[in-house]
């Protein structure tokens, strides 16, 4: 065959087609052009199934194109609100990599469980609904296909999906493409090996033309990963023209106006000409919009480079039909006088960080506003009890807390049980506390619904004691300062104690101590209600405890610490003892596990009805279908608190 041209070689038609297809150069497409031509949205994963249209979300075009092979950009940061298409932007890039720019790719979700769910709900439909991708990734059921839930092999590369809580997944292999989704939900440290973002980025070092995409809704100011990355970029914002004066501006929440109680009449008032802009103009405005860098490399600090670009977008830019200004106004009204909902609004609607005050409240002010209600008695508004237990070498300390609507709380008692915690005597006394009932002002009595016991000290003894009780009454916990959730999913832990190996591991609940402390300090800084006013959301009540209790309750402060060039925020003691703070944190975690944060109005009404509080007048025309049994009255002797009176 030497000397013969290709046309002279006798090939069958199928081989001829394959040969010419291989010789044909790949089309020079950008990510947005590829998505418009080949991306199909599945009805399983999208509210608007069918062909992808970048014109629906024109602000995503520049973000996607920065991820194209022809772009010199190496890292893209997208700090966003919800309902703007950030994840689908990343999925378009994923499809583009499989089809046009193959190579090893790593996609990181906050947890392995979320990575599996994302694979089933988004990645698999992305491949199956796009013919260009379906031919390059084998069906998952074929033998030796290389297509599993967390691994997708395609021609020229592999997609690995993992969680930021898995150090093994983060160091699996070198990658050219890295997609970090919802980075603010990542743990601060993974298996003691360091920051998961740093570990993942280390996988790209051997590739000179690497691409990294970070996408996330921000969380707390100065602790948000996506905010820190955005501030190191050129900080682009999307400017829209006013349909009246044609002047360009970014959408600001302060310019959304509506009559009180009528949020769905909200309109935007131009920041330049002050004319009202109805939401029907938004589609035209988005089409004419443009990204402008507010920190271009020529003016930026040394940390900003032309290879790293950042984009910030709030949910106010969400296309018509997705999330309206009226819905935003309604959420704003609902969040007033509710710090937790307000934080969610700032993070998810405005796409901004929450300014968290980590300084400790004034213990003297809390001491001065103590109330005159008896120990071991549950006030009228308290509807259920939890307990938080802190274990030391020579004692166990425990706070019993009553909880009511809107996370309001009443400290019922604080117990100090002296004794060697490696022996059984002090644990027997803790069991007596668990089995105790507490008199409610309505005349009935309440048990402790859930007791949370810290396993940080004398761990094996804690596990052994907790195993004696149903998981609905007692929970072993382990605190993590870096967690972004109040309570995580429990994990079974194999325990060996006194030579005995348990067949089933005890479930240990991970709790986010930093999150709970931030929430608690926000509640403690609130002033009491004025005459005729409603108590603030989360207001904390205390009986006549001594000064020591309040010093311990406010003993820590959130401080910044530089570790290997990275800012880390840690809670540090400013007072030698902090057991009262820890007990309250654990009691709050127990309330979360009881479901308090998820309860609807019907659940609160049921608890009130059981105690005979605020019972609604029945309609005489409707016969009752069932009668709730009346709780038995258990007289409880009143006693003084054992805590430093």
Précis, in short:
With 645 residues, the protein is an alpha/beta fold.
> In CATH's first tier, which class of the largest domain applies?
Alpha Beta
CATH superfamily of the largest domain: P-loop containing nucleotide triphosphate hydrolases
User: The biggest beta sheet, please?
Assistant: 11 strands, mixed
- The CATH architecture classification of the largest domain is 3-Layer(aba) Sandwich
Tally the helices: what do you get?
A: 19
- The total of beta strands comes to 30
Structural category: alpha/beta
CATH topology of the largest domain: Rossmann fold
Count structural domains: 2
Estimated share of beta-strand residues: 15-25%
pLDDT averaged residue by residue: 84
- End-to-end Cα distance, whole Å, is 102 Å
Using only C-alpha atoms, the radius of gyration works out to 29 Å
Q: What shape does the CA trace take?
A: globular
The parts where pLDDT drops under 50 for at least 5 residues are 1-7, 299-304, 615-645
